[in-house]
């Protein structure tokens, strides 16, 4: 494994830059010499590895996109022979061929280390236990959390996704300290626990590690309240390594990107140009230590902001804020642009509703229509018409847009996600 440990997260910024420069130069040469895709892209730009002397020249490099992964399916982006690959994972492939990713043993060691950093930052130690409610298999989540926790010396309960009643029983019977899962599944887990006669706040859980789908602050607050635990956000993607690219510490003030392994940029999704400091942009990531699959300037599609100030925990690594949406998830209705997370933030301001909703988009003639379905809270006993009117008014005020209709349904009526990512938007147009 590379000579990187938790101390790298506290390096002065100029010393970190030296590490990044050295590793970028090495990565660029490795990609150029061993991946035909990058060699052809460099040649087309009239670029050679010698032209890249550090991260100051990173904007010269070509972008990599999810389409490139699919075009080079299955292993065209690999930089090593298959006899050096010890693990294969893949994206879900819900919109076509999956994105295949490979790991050498060195890559797996790096993955375990960055995951362990996240666990330590969340206050966990080798004395703690972790219930892993992410699915095992081609999806990177299950094995990523499992291997990182094992490297930490934690006891792992590998429940995987689904089988929610068993999840609750394991949490209760084994007094599990931490659990990792999607935020939507965390809320469903709390509901099932209630139905089984367990009070979620009585469980031994102290830490909930969530990720793999967007989560607004109101939803995080709901999760923490339901379990009386600290919920910390994780970020990752298969194309870069899996979970472990970034994670919150106990300050809960943005996710630390492990910059000695992954170099971040923010660009305007329309122009590809860098955004001004402090502005929101599309996150672009370059791997600095990947062997099997080096990736240059990968356009994640995720919209966020970056904070380079030293964190209250003392770590100097840059922090990314929660992803507000994806560049390709932008909803346009009658000329108004917004993201699903913006609707969620408004809806969850209302105590009278539960953190479950869905957006249905339809077209009647030439007119787009948006219907919002919101689930009522268990203890709701007020006026539905008044609540609908207030939701309409608040959305109109915040987004300069309001849905054509708001439907309020009973608790539990909106389908829950038991495995995988939750779907919020249904576009019928």
From TrEMBL:
Tell me the route in metabolism or biology where this protein functions.
Aromatic compound metabolism
| CDD domains listed in its UniProt record | PaaK
From what superkingdom does this record's organism come? Archaea
- Give all residue intervals belonging to the AMP-dependent ligase C-terminal domain: 335-429
Q: Which GO terms describe its molecular function?
A: nucleotide binding; phenylacetate-CoA ligase activity
A Pfam cross-reference name:
AMP-binding_C_2
Classification via InterPro entries: Adenylate-forming_Reductase (IPR051414), AMP-bd_C_sf (IPR045851), AMP-binding_CS (IPR020845), AMP-dep_Lig_C (IPR028154), AMP-dep_synth/lig_dom (IPR000873), ANL_N_sf (IPR042099), PA_CoA_ligase (IPR011880)
Keywords tagged on the record: Ligase, Nucleotide-binding
Residues forming the AMP-dependent synthetase/ligase domain are: 78-285
GO biological-process terms attached to the record:
phenylacetate catabolic process
PANTHER family xrefs: PHENYLACETATE-COENZYME A LIGASE
Q: How does it assemble?
A: Monomer.
The protein's name is: Phenylacetate-CoA ligase
Q: What is the lineage of its organism?
A: Archaea, Methanobacteriati, Methanobacteriota, Stenosarchaea group, Halobacteria
């Amino acid at each position: 494994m590379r000579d990187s440990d938790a101390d790298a997260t506290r390096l002065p910024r100029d010393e970190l830059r030296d590490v990044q420069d050295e590793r970028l130069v090495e990565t660029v040469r490795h990609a150029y010499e061993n991946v035909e895709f990058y060699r052809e892209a460099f040649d087309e730009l009239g670029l050679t590895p010698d032209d890249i002397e550090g991260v100051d020249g990173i904007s010269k490099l070509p972008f990599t996109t999810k389409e490139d992964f699919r075009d080079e399916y299955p292993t065209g982006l690999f930089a090593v022979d298959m006899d050096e690959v010890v693990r294969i994972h893949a994206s879900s492939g819900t919109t076509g061929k999956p994105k295949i990713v490979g790991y050498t043993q060195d890559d797996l060691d790096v993955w375990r280390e960055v995951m362990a950093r996240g666990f330590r930052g969340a206050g966990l130690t080798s004395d703690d236990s972790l219930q892993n409610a992410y699915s095992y298999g081609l999806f990177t989540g299950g094995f990523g959390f499992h291997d990182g926790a094992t490297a930490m010396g934690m006891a792992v309960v590998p429940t995987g996704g689904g089988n929610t009643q068993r999840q609750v029983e394991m949490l209760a019977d084994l007094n599990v300290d931490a659990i990792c899962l999607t935020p939507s599944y965390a809320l469903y887990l709390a509901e099932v626990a209630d139905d089984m006669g367990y009070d979620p706040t009585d469980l031994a859980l102290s830490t909930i590690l969530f990720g793999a789908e967007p989560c607004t602050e109101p939803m995080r607050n709901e999760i923490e309240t339901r379990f009386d635990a600290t919920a910390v956000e994780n970020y990752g993607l298969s194309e870069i390594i899996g979970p472990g690219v970034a994670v919150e510490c106990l300050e809960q003030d943005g996710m630390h990107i492990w910059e000695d392994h992954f170099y971040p940029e923010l660009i305007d999704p329309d122009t590809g140009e860098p955004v001004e400091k402090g502005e929101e942009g599309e996150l672009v990531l370059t791997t600095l230590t990947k062997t099997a699959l080096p990736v240059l300037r990968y356009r994640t599609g995720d919209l966020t902001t970056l904070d380079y100030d030293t964190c209250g925990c003392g770590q100097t690594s840059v922090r990314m804020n929660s992803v507000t949406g994806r560049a390709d998830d932008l909803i346009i209705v009658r000329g108004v642009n917004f993201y699903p997370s913006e609707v969620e933030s408004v809806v969850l301001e209302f105590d009278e509703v539960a953190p479950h909703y869905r957006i249905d988009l339809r077209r009647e003639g030439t007119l787009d229509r948006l219907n919002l379905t919101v689930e009522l809270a268990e203890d709701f006993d007020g006026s539905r018409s008044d609540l609908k009117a207030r939701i309409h008014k608040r959305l109109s005020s915040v987004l300069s847009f309001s849905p054509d209709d708001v439907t309020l349904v009973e608790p539990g009526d909106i389908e829950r996600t038991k495995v995988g990512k939750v779907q919020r938007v249904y576009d019928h147009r």
